[in-house]
Amino acid sequence: MSDANFVYLTKERLMELEKELQEMKTNGRKEIAAKIAEARAHGDLSENAEYDAAKEEQGLFELRISKLENVLSRARVIDPTQFPNGEAHILSVVTIKNLKTQKMFEYTLVSPEEADFQAGKISITSPVGQGLMGSKAGQKVNVKAPAGILEFEILSIK
C-alpha cells in the first residue's frame, strides 16, 4: 500500500472513530431495525412512506459504517515527536497573519479526516494547509486559494 493511501490520525481521533463505529454496529443497527419493523407493521409497503424513509436511513447508516471501516483500515497513528522542530508539519499549531487584512489566525494542521474549521483544525490537503506545510516561523508564504492568492506571514509554529 502506498503512503498516499494511509489516513494519518492522532491516537485520540482513532479512538473516537473506533468508539463511533462500535456504537453504530451495536445500538445503531438495532435502532434502525426497530424503525423498519415498526414501519413495516403499518401495512402495504408499496405506499408506505415511513418504511421508505426508514430504508433510506438504513442505507445512509450502512454507508457511514462502511466509510468508517475504510478509514480505520488505512489509519496510521502519528507521533508529532517524529517531525523536525521549527517546521510546519501535520499536528503543528501554526499562528499566521494575513498580510492583506492584518488578521491573525491559529490553526492546527491535521489530516483531512480530522479537519474541523470551527475548531481551528485545517487539513494539510487544503490550499492553506498545503501552503503552510514545511514553512518556518518568520517566513512569508503565498497560498493559491479559490479566492485568489493569499499572503501570510508565519508568526509561530508549535
Tell me what the structure shows.
The chain has three helices and seven strands, in the order E-H-H-E-E-E-E-H-E-E. The model has no long low-confidence stretch (mean pLDDT 88). It is elongated, with a radius of gyration of 22 Å. It folds into two domains: 3-77, Helix Hairpins; 80-157, Transcription elongation factor, GreA/GreB, C-terminal domain (Chitinase A, domain 3, Roll), CATH 3.10.50. Strands 5-4-3-7-6 form a five-stranded mixed β-sheet. A two-stranded parallel sheet has the order 1-2. 18% of the residues are buried. The protein is an alpha/beta fold and 158 residues long. The protein is 39% helix and 24% strand.
CATH topology of the largest domain: Chitinase A, domain 3
SSE series: EHHEEEEHEE
Please give the radius of gyration in angstroms.
22 Å
Please indicate the count of domains: 2
Strand order of the largest sheet: 5-4-3-7-6
Per CATH, which architecture of the largest domain? Answer: Roll
Ends apart, CA distance between termini: 31 Å
CATH superfamily of the largest domain: Transcription elongation factor, GreA/GreB, C-terminal domain
Unreliable stretches: none
